[in-house]
Amino acid sequence: MLRRLLLFFLFSLTLANASNFLTAQQQTQFLQKMTAAAANIKNFKAGFVQQRHLSVLSEPLLSEGICFFEAPDKLRWELTSPYQTVLIYNADRVAKFEMENNRLRKMNFGGGDMMRKVLKQIISWMQGDFNTADGIYDLRIQKGMPVKLELIPKSEKLRQSLRSIQLFVHSTSYRVFRVRIQETDTDYVQIDFKEMAENIELHPALFNTNHPQAVK
Amino acid sequence: MKRGFLLVLTALLLSCSSALKLPPLQSVLPGYLPDWFTASFRYPTQFNTTQRILLTANSKEYDFTASLQKEKQELRAVTLAEMGSLFLYLKINGNKVEIIRNPSGLPENPLRDGVAGDIRFLFERDTLVHRWNWQQNAQKTLLVQRYGARQIIWQTDSAAKQVEMATEVVNGQTIRIVHFKDYRYFDSIGRTLPARIVIQNKRWHYTLRVQLLDIHHSKPGKP
Fold first, then answer.
1. Which residues from chain A sit within 8 angstroms of residue B54, using beta carbons?
2. B180, B84, B97, A114: CA torsion to nearest 10
3. In terms of CA atoms, which chain A residue is nearest residue B101?
4. Residues of B with CB below 8 A from A84's CB?
5. Residue A115's Cα: distance from chain center in Å?
6. Nearest to residue A70, comparing CAs of A198, A211, A216?
7. Domains and CATH numbers, chain A
8. Measured at the alpha carbon of residue A165, what is the angle toward residues A159 and A167, in degrees to the nearest 5?
9. Nearest CB to B222; choose among A56, A98, A161
């Protein structure tokens, strides 16, 4: 009797767990809706708060900033606190600037090649395109409000340092409002987007990789 | 014409050096070092900092946010790269340096000897065990700290009572030159400390520009 009960309990758990995620067909439909919603976004501007949680740190490291995106391939990631830097991706060119004496100084950025790949990937995901992640990550989508897209590294080696990348998506607008990069149970980076404004007038100089416009 | 210019230049240099000329070195016992000198490095016994670090190596610049925690004798240094990704995590306890995380696979020697050495130089300052000499005039106080083959020359501003520069030399070879700038009072710990430090590591050929953004007494806690 006890054994039957245990089996029933395990079976119920499996069912509950399985029903928590979208089926392959539902997943495809959801991604199509997300891509369609993203297609309507010509550009956007959003503030962000980044929290860095590490078990070794007694409190998270916080930073804030503002990001600008213009389809298909322009992104400006600007840190405003605790110090000011600007990272720009524009059609495969990457540049970084720091604020020095109230002026943006172009840095001879050492991590350019790596950042180019990372930013390119982020831009694809922003547009609902997860095809580029196919070879590296398994994608599963958790139901709920919000919907959670989870990218899990296929390689066990990569999984040792990166458990998953989670995108929290608003269930009706299909907008990503939170990204969490989960390294271990306790270590993660969480980026929350706020005050998002879409299809606004953005000056092209915001994405200039030589002389970008400063934002006040 | 050229000879005349050289003469003028020599005279100028001579006049400058005589203005800065210091009396011969005198011995000083550690307990008699000027208070303001030891205060320049008086970090709390347990602290947490947030720093911005700009590393220049091979003329390329790398930008990091760092957190340094000191608890008991242990220093824990965490360095984050773009978008919060973990770049480096070191534990330093005296001569013992542990590389806990190094995801980009940086070679160990520059980390143990270079970066950990720089951190120890700045935050593990024991003024009691070394032999000291000093020279002083109205503008400058020069303190020379000797320990075996190691010598550190501290150049200070006598009037402002602040350390300006330190040069560490081992067996006649310059290891690092450190500039201390922008002294500020940090309310959180009730002390004045240099908010900007520039370290030129001559052995490993890089420069670190460290900007102290926040410092506070650490909360007891995590392992």
1. 98
2. -100
3. A161
4. none
5. 14
6. A198
7. 44-207 (2.50.20.10)
8. 165
9. A56
Whether A55 has its CB under 8 Å from any CB of chain B: the answer is: yes
Cα–chain-centroid distance for residue B40? 10
DSSP E strand boundaries for A20-145: 43-53, 61-70, 74-81, 85-90, 93-100, 103-106, 137-142
Q: Classify strands A93-100 and A176-182 as parallel, antiparallel or unpaired.
A: unpaired
Nearest CB among B61, B80, B219 relative to A61 is that of B80
**pTM greater than 0.90:** no
Q: Which residues of B touch A189 (CB under 8 A)?
A: 83-85
Judged by DSSP in three states, A16 sits in: helix
**One-letter amino acid identity for A137?**
Y
Q: Do B83 and A189 touch (CB under 8 A)?
A: yes
Q: Could you tell me what percent of chain B has a pLDDT over 70?
A: 79
Helix (H) or strand (E) holding B35: helix B35-39
More confident residue, A54 or B40: A54
User: Average pLDDT, stretch B37-52?
Assistant: 85
CA B32 remoteness from chain centre = 22
Strands A93-100, A85-90: pairing kind: antiparallel
Instruction: Report the alpha-carbon distance of residue B162 to residue B34 in Å, rounded.
Output: 11
Mean pLDDT value across residues A143-148: 90
ipTM of the complex, rounded to two decimals? 0.81
Answer yes or no: is pLDDT of A2 > 90. Answer: no
Strand, coil or helix: B202: coil
What are the residues facing B207 on neighbouring strands?
Answer: B56, B200
| Binary contact (B69, A56; C-beta < 8 A) | yes
